Each structure stands twice: as C-alpha cells, then as structure tokens.
Amino acid sequence: MKLKTASLLCILLISLSNCAQNNSKIEPLENNITTFYFIRHAEKDRNDKTNRDPHLTEIGKARADHWNDILKHVMFDAVYTTDYHRTKETARPTAKRCQVDLTIYNPKDLNIKSFKTKNSGKNVLIVGHSNTTPMLVNQVIGKEKYSDIDDRNNGNLYVVTIINGVITDQVLEINPR
What is the pLDDT of residue 5? Predict the structure, then answer.
C-alpha cells in the first residue's frame, strides 16, 4: 500500500511539475491599445487674407482651452501639430497639461505605417487642418471614409482606436456652449 501511495505521490508531483513548466511557456495576451485623437485647429484670424500663418482669435484660444477641458481625462503620450501658429496654439494647452513637447509633422510627408508603429500603445493628439485631418484619419483606418471638414467647422473630434490590430473609428462634433 505504501508503494502505491508513494508511486501516486511521485506521479502527482511530476505532473504538477510538468504543468508548472508548461504554464511558464504560455505568454499572457497583451492588450495593445492605441488611441489617436484628431482635431482641426481652432478659429484663426481671418482679417488679413494674405497671411498664410495667422494666429488664433480670442474665440479660437477659448476653443483650444475647451479642447483641453474636454480631453482632461486623457493623458497624452504625444501631441503632433503642423508647423503653423494656429495648430500649435490649439495643441499647446493640452500638451502643457500632459507635460509633453509639441511634435511638428508634415501631413504630406508622414509615413502612416511608421507613425502607427512609433505610437503603438499610446494616446496621441494630432492637430491639423480642414483637409489634412480627415485625410490622415482615412490613412490610419485604411479606407476613404471622411471628407474635408467645412471651413466653418472647428469642432470635429475623430477618435481612432486600435486594439490588437482591430481598428474602430468615430467622429464627434463638439462645440463650446
């Protein structure tokens, strides 16, 4: 009887040991979540039609602060903006709150695959223009879904989430009260 008990105990210990070894080889699934938030710059000064790089108006500055308030629960790992006063001024309150530098990008030269890889697993704000913002969203989601933003609309928020390679997107229109 002792021999059977000892044999069973040895088999049990060997089995448990093998299970423990096998479990150590199984890697847990990681949820790689990347979220891109795309907005157009806030209201720009339109007084000088020849000025290709105007600053924000007072209403535009208020909207930039409003974007920061709306996104206050999102800690951004990166904030991208084109190299124009209006986009940098729109992005600055949020970048300051998140303690990140503005990263200048050129939408015409942006390699979307590299951009997505570089920002994998991060929360990223991208500030652009009425034509470049939907263009970049389309490139990130891999389909032509969004058209240029009406020139009077500064309130679109495009949210693109990538979870383990699965892409979801939505657009919200958010305007101050």
Answer: 43
- In the predicted model, residues of the chain with pLDDT beneath 50 are 2-28
Provide Rg for the chain, Cα atoms: 25
Quote the CATH superfamily of domain 33-173: Phosphoglycerate mutase-like (3.40.50.1240)
Q: What is the pLDDT of residues 81-131, one digit of tens each?
A: 999 999 999 999 999 999 999 999 999 999 999 999 999 999 999 999 999
Domain spans, the chain: 33-173
Please check whether residue 112 is in contact with residue 138, taking contact to mean a CB–CB distance below 8 angstroms: no
Q: What pTM, to 2 d.p., does this model score?
A: 0.83
Q: In 10 A of CB 84, how many CB atoms?
A: 19
Question: Rounded CA gap, 17 and 11, in Å?
Answer: 10
Residue by residue, DSSP assigns 19-47 as: HHHHHHHPPPPP--EEEEEEEE--PBP-S
Which region holds residue 164: left if phi is over 0, alpha if psi is between -120 and 50, else beta? left
